[in-house]
Specification:
Elements: E1 24-25, H1 35-51, E2 54-56, H2 59-67, E3 71-73, E4 76-78, H3 81-88, E5 95-97, E6 106-108, E7 112-117, E8 123-126, E9 129-133, H4 136-148, H5 170-181, H6 193-207, H7 211-216, E10 221-224, E11 231-232, H8 234-245, E12 249-252, E13 255-258, H9 266-287, E14 293-296, E15 298-302, E16 309-310, H10 314-329, E17 334-337, H11 347-362, E18 367-372, E19 374-375, E20 380-382, H12 383-399, H13 407-410, H14 412-418, H15 428-431, H16 460-473, H17 482-497
Helix pairs in contact: 1-9, 3-9, 4-5, 5-6, 5-17, 6-8, 6-17, 8-9, 9-10, 10-11, 12-16
Length: 505
């Protein structure tokens, strides 16, 4: 099947596309299932929601769904198919996610794909350090690295969990760093009502806008993971309640692993994924009709001998492709992921990341989370892997950009000028296009083996470490309005002095 794919690439140092045209455009995706097969998954999902239902652990969310016609029995909520269809139909097919810098605003639902860096890893490695729990310093450096890599369009969350900030105030300090060290769009964790409200207010302050403008301009997003199978916990539900009420973006993403938290067949796992996603999307629209929402898919499988999660598998690709078909069936933007289960920067890490990335891109994802820096099935963030993956994203963008075919690019005159047995290095046709002729790699060392010693035989991970070090050394925080900066500092200090949020320890 022919595809028309149009990506607008950048290189590491300077954006080659217009700063206002953020994101890569992709169109016309392959169809993994027939219309009848897709409808079979849709119908089965509605039967699950009608007959089995979802456990919703937030009383407020249950009451709201009951007011809209859902059947509530204790914590179990059952949905009539017509109710699900009616609520999901209220969600917008496209919207803009704004950022502190208008140049980094992202349009979802218009056929573009945006990449985020790794998020939520508890550990980190690289730049000379062995694997260790994340720190505030690691967190800050990874945020700065994300800001510096032009192939990354937004933050996926905390690139690593900074454990030296107490959980009660961690969201305050982490969001403060995200807003000061970067001007790309950011993510708010749905970890309870107060954390969500604090983060929303900090983003409003940093953008120097009113609450009314924030209501009109979605400026923050959250990923709501259902607790598969068939459960929506209270903190995640509170994230939906608070963010959707304020017209902010919710990415409903069941995290289903076939054989463990979902049926072992890809079709069965997708039925469960779809049921959980539709229930969460329906809740967003019950809160506020027209609130921006993204259909998320994160279905993979486990190794049936060890039970360990597996990523970058054929099953992951199948699920990513079909997830895109389901999202388009409902007219919603689609989220997928670029992931791997490797423990080292080796062939496994690159092949699994590339395989999952192809599934996400060809599935038509508007948002690909964990596109750079993810290791160990999400247990580790890596500086070197982030740079290696960013280079892959650049190459992917260039490879999928349609070539130019016109009289000049056909180069008949240049071929005639060189003639048999010549070369094209010095002809005018080459010189005029030298700088823009090809993707300019930062990692690839295209030397003959005999000359490799001249560069000290650097491996790809060594070059990635050098690039990451150079980018961090050259990082400059993007400017922030002086009054907004002072207000943000005052807010963080006040909320921290109040103790932040209640924790169990």
């Amino acid at each position: 099947m022919e595809r028309c794919v149009c990506l607008q690439p950048t290189i590491f140092g300077t954006a080659r596309s217009s700063a206002l045209d953020t994101g890569y455009r992709v169109q016309d995706f392959p169809q993994q299932l027939t219309t009848a097969e897709l409808e079979a998954i849709h119908d089965a999902s509605l039967r699950v929601l009608r007959d089995v239902g979802m456990d919703v652990l937030s009383p407020e969310a249950r009451h709201l769904l009951a007011d809209h016609g859902a059947r509530v029995d204790g914590e179990r909520v059952r949905f009539d198919p017509d109710l699900v269809v009616e609520l999901v139909a209220l969600a917008p097919s496209n919207f803009t996610l704004h950022s502190r810098n208008p140049a980094h605003a992202l349009r979802f639902g218009d056929g573009k794909v945006a990449f985020s860096a790794v998020a939520s890893a508890p550990n980190v490695s690289g730049l000379g350090a062995e694997r260790h729990p994340g720190t505030a310093d690691d967190f800050t450096r990874l945020v700065c690295l994300t800001q510096s890599l032009h192939s990354l369009h937004l933050h996926g969350g905390y690139p690593v969990e900074p454990i030296d900030w107490h959980p009660a105030v961690r969201h305050l300090h982490a969001t403060d760093v995200l807003l000061r060290c970067s001007d790309k769009a950011l993510h708010s964790y749905s970890l309870g009502r107060q954390r969500t409200l604090d983060t929303i207010e900090m983003v409003r302050i940093a953008r120097s806008i009113s609450e009314e403008q924030l209501l009109e301009e979605p400026s923050i997003y959250t990923v709501v993971n259902t607790s598969s199978p068939l459960r929506l916990d209270a903190p995640m539900a509170e994230g939906i309640l608070e963010l959707s009420a304020r017209n902010q973006v919710v990415v409903v993403t069941p995290f289903t692993l076939a054989g463990a938290m979902a049926p072992v067949t890809v079709a069965g796992a997708l039925v469960q994924q779809n049921a959980e996603a539709l229930a969460g999307i329906a809740l967003t629209q019950a809160v506020r009709p027209g609130a921006p929402v993204v259909y998320g898919g994160f279905t993979s499988n486990v190794d049936m001998q060890s039970g360990a999660p597996a990523f970058g598998t054929p099953e992951f690709v199948n699920a990513a492709l079909i997830g895109g078909q389901l999202a388009r069936r409902y007219g919603l933007p689609y989220r997928s992921s670029g992931v791997n289960a490797a423990n080292a920067l080796d062939a496994q890490s690159s092949s699994e990341s590339m395989f999952s990335l192809w599934g996400a891109v060809l599935g038509g994802a508007d948002l690909i989370v964990h596109a750079a820096g993810w290791m160990e099935g999400g247990l580790r963030a890596s500086y070197e892997k982030m740079v290696l993956d960013a280079e892959v994203l650049e190459k992917l963008a260039t490879a999928l950009t349609p070539i130019t075919v016109d009289d000049a690019s056909l180069a008949v005159e240049a071929i005639a000028e060189v003639g048999p047995g010549g070369h094209f290095f010095g002809v005018a046709h080459t010189r005029e296009r030298f700088r823009d002729a090809f993707h300019q790699p930062m990692l690839s060392d295209w030397r003959n083996y005999e000359t490799w010693d001249e560069a000290g035989r650097p491996t790809a991970d060594q070059r990635a470490a050098e690039i990451a070090t150079d980018l961090l050394a050259g990082h400059v925080d993007p400017p922030m309005d002086t009054a907004a900066s002072a207000e943000l500092t005052a807010f963080v200090e006040r909320r921290a002095a109040e103790g932040g949020v209640a924790t169990a320890f």
